[in-house]
Amino acid sequence: MKKRFIITAALPYTNGNLHIGHLSGVFLPADIYSRYLRSLKKKLIFISGSDEHGVSILIKSIKENKNPKFIINKYHKVIKKNLKQMNISLDNYFRTSNKLHHNFSIKIFNKLLNKNFFLKKETYQYYDKDYNLFLADRFVIGVCPYCKYKEAYSDFCEKCGIILKQKDLKNPKSILTNKKPIFKSTINYFLNFKKLLNQIKFLKKKFKKLKFSSKIIKYISNFIKSKINNRSITRDLNWGVKIPHYKKKVLYVWFEAILGYITSTINWAKRNKKKWYLYWKNKNSKLINFIGKDNIIFHSLFYPLIIKNYDKNYILPNYINVNEFLNFNGKKISTSKNRAIFINKFLKYLPDFVDTLRYTLIIDMPINKDTNFTWEKFKVYNNNYLIGILGNYINRVIVLLNKYNNSKIPSKILLNHNQKKILKYIYKYPKKIGKLILKFKFKLALLKFLNLARFGNKFLSKTSPWLMGKNTIEFNNILFISSQILGYICFLSNYFLPNFYKKMLKLLNLNTNNIYNIKNKINFLPCNHKINKSKLIFKKINKSFYKIFNKINN
RNA sequence: GACGUAAUAACUCAGUGGUAGAGUAUUGGUCUCAUAAUCCAAAAGUCGGGGGUUCAAAUCCCCCUUACGUCACCA
Length: 554
Hints:
Blueprint: E1 4-9, H1 20-39, E2 43-50, H2 55-63, H3 68-85, E3 92-95, H4 99-114, E4 118-128, E5 133-134, E6 140-143, E7 152-153, E8 170-174, E9 182-191, H5 197-209, H6 214-225, E10 231-232, E11 234-236, E12 249-251, H7 253-257, H8 260-272, H9 277-280, E13 285-292, H10 296-310, E14 317-323, E15 326-328, E16 331-332, H11 343-349, H12 354-363, E17 371-373, H13 375-404, H14 417-427, H15 429-438, H16 442-463, H17 473-496, H18 498-508, H19 545-553
Parallel strand pairs: 1-2, 1-13, 2-3, 13-14, 15-17
Antiparallel strand pairs: 4-5, 4-9, 6-7, 6-8, 9-10, 11-12, 15-16
Helix pairs in contact: 2-3, 5-6, 12-13, 13-16, 13-17, 14-17, 15-16, 16-17, 17-18
The protein binds one RNA strand through helix 6, strand 10, helix 7, helix 13 and helix 16.
């Protein structure tokens, strides 16, 4: 049976718009990976969706005096549209507020409940009387008993870095009302990590075998070594996946959000008349998660423990690609503090620079450590790399063909030994780039791609065909080789720069079917093939753009 | 405080045991097919500090310094 791939990008939380962090952290790497597998004609689905529950959205809705549904509808719509505009090639973008998702999550919860999988426990929590709401630790602020910091959370003081017990906090205040919350008892269900220790150890072994990033292995190791706290998976809220027979309780957002990949697939399968379980309950399937470092625990522990105890036929991740964070101007991106480049704003002011943004975010992808986005880099990448190296090369070759050869790929060629070697070298590029992509080295893959244009520029400068007579064998040879480089650039660009790819196809008068031949050593631009007149693809960024950058910042 | 990640040329980074690499910026030059682009060359680093293992360390181990991140009922 043919292998099936499930590629997932972490679900963005709908308390704000899509920003560059989402793209560089999960959507772009997942997109490149998916585009590559598609070019090999693999069977795959690339899925994601909106994560629309949780207390943060409820708090936002209270503060803005709106219905939570209004908030999620507003952001879901824009995020979905923005992903498409950025050419993220998702097969399905679903949402966790959908009934299908609710039913599926409850089905799993109920079965586990009946199996006595959860621990039932009474805890005391802060409670806001005015809003009838139990408050998460982050929503109670007070004075730190150690350093007297006035805005310490009830579980953690940011200033002195000390973990607090709820009762330690002095002068606790609800962030909703600024009033003192009361302490009240409640009963919730917990994931019994202590009881699941053997399963966790098994997962660690399994992930180690699969060569998961050491970030994940170390995380689980530490988790096992530390004093494991069981984690509640129900909440006293009226916003979320409601649990039947338990009034005023919903599932903890991550208990169900992690199942969103499955429900997104079910939704996709229904619309396309496919069988979703051939992906999720099939030993020949491969699940690859793309996530940020903030949700390692949910993908490496929550999901496997929940799903395997529900039905052992479900598959576990074959790889979890964890990225660090992208900062903006040296500071952490924050949706709530409005510190980010939001994609809808970017597209409003710079709609022609989608590929430049993709390039910038891929080159500076936070693979090993946090990286930093600046407009200065954005400009350099656009002007020096995309225009100087890439755009310039294709324009040089196309103009040469336009001017000297009637816009046709030369036909009378007779390659010498050295020139044949050059062609062979070019044929190796798809494989080289593919290998890097499969190893999740997206930045190196893109650099390799750009190298092809660099190689072309050097080749042209060394050989200087414009100094030769038209239609001599040597002239034809050089233009033929340069054209093949052009063809490879065109097809390989599809992984990284989809808009550029589409424009190149038009310029070169090619169709997309050829892309499936990229595994073979093939000349995409055969002799006598006619191309179109040269047209500039990238726009230059000059000083006047800084006004636009500032508009996008604010 | 605990844990994690990092520290390499002015800048951004690549390089996991075998004579220090790339791009940008700088300086000089070449070319005109090209979006003042390209291409060639020069200059630029005792690879954070100290110790250890080894014939051999940027790379492995230990200690220190500095920066960033995480620390669980936020997502």
